[in-house]
From TrEMBL:
Name of this chain's protein: Gamma-glutamyl phosphate reductase
One protein family per Pfam: Aldedh
Protein family per UniProt: Belongs to the gamma-glutamyl phosphate reductase family.
Entry's Gene Ontology molecular function annotations: glutamate-5-semialdehyde dehydrogenase activity; NADP binding
Lineage: Bacteria, Bacillati, Bacillota, Negativicutes, Veillonellales
UniProt keyword list: Amino-acid biosynthesis, Cytoplasm, NADP, Oxidoreductase, Proline biosynthesis
Length: 419
């Protein structure tokens, strides 16, 4: 038995017991829980901020890039937004118990396909304490138990939040162990958690490419893969010039540390000489470093050369690649080669080109004349989200309530036997 196996086995057993109770909770009980969570968060804002301030003060020892401090930082407004997201879940329909399909066989046997909770979910994530609340709230609404393993750089914030979530569970007579935080920060412990197949039904990693790669490769438990965001904006030859700068700046600059932030700008060669200098100036004015191919550097002198790794890099920073392409087809080919199947945008007024882009780009979310920053459960009306799935099985795109459910078949009859 490995060093941490007993710790995680105990945690898994507690989660499994708690999940049974959560599955029995009706909609009214779960909604009361969520309202309690929102109230508890808002009433403990000073305590949450104190824990977060401590984590922020320690972040330097973890070599956290300065741009990533934005992910780690909580403010009064961000906590209030978290509470709002929890309350929005109350207003959403409870998916559990939904009859997805039903039929009656010739022998009178009635078959129903019914939506049920997943059971126990293990959530891995990095320096984003808001994920602690989002993940827990979604699991509460869907009757699941969750084991949370956040990054050490946010440990004290996560610990404070989880203690509040557990208090809310106890206050409404639901098991506190429906939400548990891994308190071992040793990276070696991850492997032991990923072996708890007997108790954990699914693993969801949310973070950088390195974290996700490790989870996918080591887990003995099924994984819903959420991907890093090498996101593109393509400016087509038939674009509306007035839409370009607002979309590009929003996609790159608003929150460069998040996964739906754009990393590469592709621009059609027919409009590049006229429009690229305007876009480049807007980016530079917003402190964005531009790295480009030879064609873009011929048009704009102050663009740095993009190396061979640039096109596949998620910067999470104020850096953007630029590439001039000969056609929409070439843009699509570039995206499908270097993209991470997250979010992709085209700026065009040509309906045929837009439709081809929508159909041919392989990504969870594809935009026409809209910033990629909208790939988010809150913006999609899903309430909170547990991640952005870039895979194609079970769930894809922003993962709300339905993504945390499975189904079973109810078969009812009157003594039928198979001949």
């Amino acid at each position: 038995m490995t060093e941490y196996a007993t710790y995680f086995e105990t945690m898994g057993r507690k989660a499994r017991v708690a999940s049974t109770a959560m599955q029995l909770a009706d909609t009214a009980a779960k909604n009361t829980l969520l309202l309690t969570v929102a109230d508890v968060l808002e009433s403990h804002i000073p305590a949450i901020l104190e824990a977060n301030d401590f984590d922020m003060s320690q972040a330097g020892q973890y070599n956290l890039p300065k741009i990533m401090y934005d992910r780690l930082r909580l403010t009064k407004e961000r906590i209030e937004q978290m509470a709002l997201g929890v309350r929005q879940l109350v207003d959403l329909p409870d998916p559990i118990g939904e009859v997805m399909e039903s039929s009656t066989r010739p022998n009178g046997m009635k078959i129903s396909k019914v939506r049920v909770p997943m059971g126990v979910i293990a959530m891995f994530y990095e320096a984003r304490p808001n994920v602690t609340v989002d993940a827990a709230a979604l699991c509460m609404k869907t009757g699941n138990a969750v084991i949370l393993r956040g990054g050490k750089e946010a440990f004290h914030t996560n610990e404070c939040l989880v203690n509040l979530l557990r208090d809310a569970l106890s206050a409404v007579n639901l098991p506190a162990d429906a939400v548990q935080l891994v308190t071992i920060t040793d990276r070696a412990a991850v492997s032991d958690l990923l072996r708890q197949r007997e108790y954990i039904d699914v693993v969801i990693p949310r973070g950088g490419a390195g974290l996700i790669k490790r989870i996918v490769e080591e887990s003995r438990i099924p994984v819903i893969e959420t991907g890093s965001g090498v996101v593109h904006v393509y400016v087509d030859k038939d674009c509306d010039e007035s839409k370009i700068v607002p979309i590009v700046i929003n996609a790159k600059v608003q929150r460069p540390s998040v996964c739906n932030s754009a990393e590469t700008l592709l621009i059609h060669e027919a409009v590049a000489p006229k429009l690229l200098p305007v876009i480049a100036k807007a980016l530079t004015d917003n402190h964005v470093e531009i790295r480009g191919d030879d064609a873009s550097r011929t048009i704009v002198e102050n663009i740095n050369a993009a190396d061979d790794t640039a096109w596949a890099t998620e910067y999470n920073d104020l850096i953007m690649n630029v590439k001039v392409v000969p056609s929409a087809e070439a843009a699509i080919a570039h995206i499908n080669h270097f993209g991470t199947k997250h979010s992709e945008c085209i700026i065009t007024e040509n309906k045929e080109t837009a439709q081809a882009f929508l159909q041919q780009v392989d990504a969870s979310t594809v935009y026409v004349n809209v910033s990629t920053r909208f790939t988010d459960g809150f913006e999609f009306g899903l309430g909170a989200e547990i991640g952005i799935s870039t895979q194609k099985l079970h769930a894809r795109g922003p993962m709300g309530l339905l993504a945390l459910t499975s189904y079973k078949y109810y078969v009812q009859g009157d003594g039928q036997i198979r001949s």
